[in-house]
Design brief:
alpha/beta, Rossmann fold, six-stranded antiparallel β-sheet, 11 strands, globular
Length: 348
């Protein structure tokens, strides 16, 4: 590889993975094609930088930017033609499944990725939690290899303190999700995995949140949640980085996002069913019992939120977990990180 080229992640062009030599040739001799690159990557070469369209791979420039000598000269946008949502997901998973482990909680999002990837899977949760039990059933039904990783409640406060140092926004939801993902990334890192395939993005793209059933403006709420994904991605990748890993997200593949955003919101959430288009597409690969299953959010399904609430109560914050988080952050070793996170949140 050219010594002046740094490649983090992986790159594809028109559905084909590129070798390092192919990437080097594009960067040095065919820069017009940089804007068409897909994948999850951060590139540096000869005073220039580029990052994948949605900024899945952390890096030193904004999402989707091509920057040379400090000036933005273009955008990374593969601009895939419209395609069937099932085919788009199938391609997105194929491009990512040459390595790594799948985070499987048992919901349709992760189950579809796991089935298409046919790789080892991992689930984390407090002993006896919903996710451990349900993922075990799903893996058995799909013939997948599953590593069950029980979370020791005694280790949760240590994990929480670690994630509060790095996540961009501190509140009970973000802290509990980040703490759950900490244990996924910890196991992956210990096993030598750098890539963790996961289902993030599906709820925002296909209408997975329970609150969508009661909203007065579904299109607005879904758009707001989609726009907020960048903060979630920053949270999750910051946690994964603690263990030398990163989350690889098939649902955030540009072709999947393009296909999903062509579907009207009222077709995604209707007749009391959330994520209807994804569930229908998933039935081509999964049994209906798995495709139609409505799973708990990870912080509840793993049991982590309940344990955090217990910690808060034991520390004098029974009525407010936010007070408990602020209490931790105000301690001397986290005070600077707390202020940085709060300042960042105010600028959103």
């Amino acid at each position: 590889m050219n010594p002046f080229i740094k490649i983090s992640g992986w790159v594809e062009l028109d559905g084909e993975r590129l070798r390092e030599s192919d990437i080097a040739a594009i960067l040095t001799a065919d820069q017009a094609r940089i804007s068409r690159l897909g994948g999850e990557f951060y590139l540096e070469w000869n005073g220039c930088k580029a990052r994948d369209h949605f900024g899945i791979m952390p890096g030193g420039c904004p999402s989707g930017a091509i920057i040379c000598e400090g000036r933005e000269i273009g955008k990374v946008d593969p601009n895939y033609p419209p395609q069937d949502i099932g085919k788009a997901i199938e391609t997105a998973v194929r491009l990512r499944s040459d390595e790594g482990v799948v985070a499987l909680s048992g919901g349709v999002d992760s189950a579809l990725v796991a089935k298409l990837a046919e790789r080892e899977c991992v689930v984390v949760g407090i002993e006896g939690s919903h996710d451990l039990l349900h993922a075990r059933e799903v893996a058995k039904d799909l013939g997948l290899s599953l590593h069950e990783v029980p979370i020791d409640p005694a280790s949760i406060e240590v994990a929480l303190r670690s994630v509060l140092l790095v996540i961009p926004k501190i509140d009970p939801v973000n802290a509990s999700i980040a703490t759950t993902l900490y244990f996924v990334a910890e196991w992956a890192g210990h096993q030598g995995y750098r890539r963790i395939l996961a289902g993030q993005g599906a709820d925002e793209l296909f209408g997975g949140y329970a609150r969508y059933l009661q909203t007065n403006d579904l299109a607005r709420d879904m758009e707001n949640d989609f726009q907020g994904l960048s903060l979630q991605l920053a949270r999750d990748q910051a946690v994964a980085k603690l263990h030398g890993a990163y989350f690889s997200l098939p649902y955030m593949d540009a072709r999947v996002v393009a296909a999903a955003r062509l579907i009207p919101p009222e077709e995604k959430v209707c007749d009391g069913v959330r994520k209807r288009p994804l569930r229908e597409a998933a039935k081509n690969y999964l049994p209906p019992s798995i495709a139609d299953y409505e799973k708990k959010a990870m912080q509840y399904g793993s049991g982590v939120m309940k344990e955090l609430q217990k910690l808060a109560a034991r520390n004098g914050c029974k009525k407010s977990m936010q007070d408990y988080l602020l209490q931790i952050c105000s301690e001397e070793n986290l005070a600077i990180a707390y202020q940085d996170r709060m300042d960042s949140s105010k600028m959103e």
